[in-house]
């Protein structure tokens, strides 16, 4: 038997490896809910996306960027799979900037994530402002989500606040 603590440091559970494995895997899955983050970003904003990824990884999140796709792999399938995993086990952070709002790739990925995460009253798709933009370019579906703004203070402090918010966010 093992006592396991969740990544948020709050939820604890006992995993009994002598019992049937399915209920134990379910408990473990629940403890790891906050572990995966998919970062949707424009390649023009890659430096900021990398900084967010590094901060998440320092807090034991598994942060996924499309740079993880090996050469020769099906890019679209890999993106869908990563979004599937993040919606099921964590969060999709949709970076908002003039470049990301102009990107068809970002638009398609965001729409796919929003379709998967359409569970009222809350969603695990979180818009994150990384550069000022004209709100008129925002899709109506994303406009209904509350944004987290990284541009309103020192970047490192704002990213830490974002991560604190993720750690305390209710998950279904």
Describe the structure concisely for a colleague:
The radius of gyration is 17 Å and the shape is globular.
How would you describe the overall organization of this protein?
This protein has 172 residues and is α/β, with parallel strands linked by helices. 44% of the residues lie in helices and 17% in strands. The protein is built from seven helices and seven strands, in the order E-E-H-E-H-E-H-E-H-H-E-H-E-H. It has helices at 21-31, 46-58, 75-89, 98-102, 104-116, 140-143, 155-168, and strands at residues 2-5, 12-15, 36-40, 62-64, 90-96, 125-129, 148-149. Strands 4-3-5-6-7 form a five-stranded parallel sheet, with helices on both faces. A two-stranded antiparallel ribbon has the order 1-2. Helix 3 (75-89) packs parallel to helix 5 (104-116). The relative contact order is 0.15.
The main pleated sheet reads as:
5 strands, parallel
H/E element order: EEHEHEHEHHEHEH
Task: Estimate percent helicity.
Answer: 40-55%
Any idea what the radius of gyration is?
17 Å
Say how many strands there are: 7
Question: What's the average pLDDT?
Answer: 83
Largest beta sheet: strand ordering? 4-3-5-6-7
Which regions have little confidence, pLDDT < 50, spanning 5+ residues?
3-12
**Tally of individual helices:** 7
The dominant shape is: globular
Strand content: 15-25%
- Structural category is alpha/beta
Distance between the termini: 26 Å
């Amino acid at each position: 038997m093992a006592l396991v603590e969740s990544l948020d440091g709050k939820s604890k559970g006992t995993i009994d490896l002598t019992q049937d494995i399915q209920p134990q895997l379910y408990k473990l899955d629940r403890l790891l809910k906050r572990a995966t983050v998919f970062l949707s970003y424009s390649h023009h904003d890659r430096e900021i996306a990398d900084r967010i990824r590094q901060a998440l990884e320092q807090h034991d999140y598994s942060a996924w960027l499309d740079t993880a796709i090996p050469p020769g792999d099906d890019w679209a399938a890999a993106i869908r799979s990563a979004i599937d995993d993040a919606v099921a086990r964590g969060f999709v952070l949709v970076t908002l900037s003039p470049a990301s709002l102009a990107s068809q790739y970002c638009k398609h990925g965001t729409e796919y994530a929003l379709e998967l995460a359409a569970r009222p009253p809350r969603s695990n798709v979180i818009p994150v402002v990384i550069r000022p933009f004209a709100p008129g370019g925002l899709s109506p579906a994303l406009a209904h989500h509350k944004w987290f703004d990284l541009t309103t203070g020192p970047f490192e402090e704002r990213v830490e606040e974002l991560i604190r918010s993720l750690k305390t966010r209710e998950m279904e």
